[in-house]
Amino acid sequence: PSIPRHTNRLINEKSPCLLQHADNPVDWYPWGQEAFDKAKKENKLIFLSVGYSTCHWCHVMEKESFKNKEIGEIMNKNFVCIKVDREERPDVDKVYMTFMQATSGGGGWPMSIWLTPDLKPFVGGTYFPPEDGVHCVGFRTVLLRIAEQWKENKDALLENSQKILEALLHRSEIRLRGQESPPPSKEVMATCFQQLSNSYDEDYGGFSESPKFPTPVNLNFLFMYWALHRTTPEGARALQMALHTLKMMAHGGIHDHIGQGFHRYSTDQHWHVPHFEKMLYDQGQLAATYSRAFQISGDEFFANVAQDILLYVSRNLSDQEGGFYSAEDADSYTTTASGEKREGAFCVWAAEEIRALLPDPVEGATEGTTLGDVFMYHYGVKETGNVSPMQDPHQELKGKNVLIVQRSTELTAAQFGLELGRLGALLGEGRQRLSAARVQRPQPHLDTKMLAAWNGLMISGFAQAGAILAKQEYVSRAAEAAAFLRRHLFDPTNGRLLRSCYRGKDNTVEQNAVPIQGFLEDYVFVIQALFDLYEASLEQGWLEWALQLQHMQDKLFWDPKGFAYFSSEAGDPSLLLRLKDDQDGAEPTANSVTVTNLLRAACYSGHTEWVEKAGQILTAFSERLQKIPITLPEMARATAVFHDTLKQVVICGDPEGADTKEMLRCVHSVFSPNKVLMLADGDSTGFLYRQLPFLASLERKDRKATAYLCSNFTCSLPFTSPQELCGML
């Protein structure tokens, strides 16, 4: 495309989302003092648009409204327009999303909010079409009406915005309400299981009709519930719900059968037609969850899916310096010559394309069968396309196919008279050829922003998969990414994390002129990652850094009055609310994960005040945990860890010894969610021995690697047999 002549202030930003809007005729400002001062000085309302670079409906609204010159003029004349990347500034996003959900009962992106000059919201929505339609008011009309209201009824608007803010402050407060102890885990777990069981889709798995999100937090809760109730019908159902959901997702179109990895969510009940963007946080959590499913079930199917996800991330979302990129877009050009992007263009297939790529006759199959016939039968490909018009409002997928495993390998093999092994090889060959053809298509946009929190989730995915699947290369990749965080997203002078860095020109890593400081979720997900990486690698340096970051998290975010952690630091006058998130969604909420982090930190350090903090968080969220734990499945899971006391599994041995490695294999092969692992290597000057004096009293028996199971620093008799240890776990 020719270089656009006009650019606005966003051209100076690093965020890919903001840069996408740098050539709009809208006079966009980034979130900051310059915009706030202009609104006050000119007494103008602020129009705040929040999105992210791989958001399909954000692209639609930009194309229809923000690139429209006339609409741009209305916006510039009447408002100070601010654009925010929600991934870069989750604190700003959460404040105004809280307003959206409180006033309209829903929310999403793009988020469109109008604020008074002092940043108080008074009206908002999500996507607006440019012009009035039969069922909705157009963006142009909304802009003009709001501008008129500001002229005619300014005082009423200001008064209203103040009332809204007071109501939000009251509504969003999570604190101790006179109750002294954390809620009982048995009841919380039972209620959460019942609520998930009631919303479970028996046929296709998942926990809603549509849209369907992967939500690994639900599956991890069900694994924990099974571990505590292995011999009961409820326990068996919990495991079946989780494994069936994971199988249906892996067979579905939400899973990219050609390019690997998972799309963000399915628009239908069958996991078939997704929104095609791929997010790093999904890949990280799902790699860990599929690895756990393999650990529990022994079914190689789940191990293969975990490896498929990690292949995608290594190939498509990895920076050469070691960090992980945020996301891959849903929209791309259909051909190198086309001027218009379409959703899913990179991923979908016409039947004739597949026939042309797979024309080979299949030996030994029924007469006249081609590789294309076998492939199309197995993956539900239809001549006229397999996407229902209901799932395709803009007709972008008309005549196209989203691949979905519609038949078992047994059924496909029987249909064409093939042996199972031979069918597997044929399908693999078909996928490879489609992959080679797909690489020639115009690639979707890559969001090369690197976020501390999401890198943390991905490090956990690589570390856990490496430990469970016994793949050292995954553990090494996790360590490489952790070293990247230490180099580029950590300030050793003050011990603090930064939120984001960016791939710059010449593939160097760049930082904002004023770096964005880390939020609670950055600390929590990175600390979790470092614990997971320690357990996979037994490198004590990661443990030491995790405990330093935990102290810093306490200092910056802990609420000493109401308990639990705030999502953002104190002291930013542009943030109207300091919130505590109360919902585990596509990502777990930071307070949920930090409960387990604190319990792990206490086990590795002997600091019992961290156990106390974990209990105080559960107490602050007690009402929600007892009434609607389905909104906090990760925190519900953590109540069980809290009440059951984490067991310390200590292996005394030489890290390089074969007997030590055999013990460690055993630990990693068993799903035992209420344990921490540590290696006592006999080096009394090392970090762990300095933290935990009791380790000095544990010794190797008969000079063999020896395991101890400890609880509250009191240990069992020693084991030297890996089988015995497996049994105990």
UniProtKB/TrEMBL annotation:
SUPFAM superfamilies: Six-hairpin glycosidases, Thioredoxin-like. Residues 7-168 form the Spermatogenesis-associated protein 20-like TRX domain. One of its GO terms (biological process) is carbohydrate metabolic process. Pfam families: Thioredox_DsbH. It comes from the Eukaryota. This is SPT20 protein. The gene is Spata20.
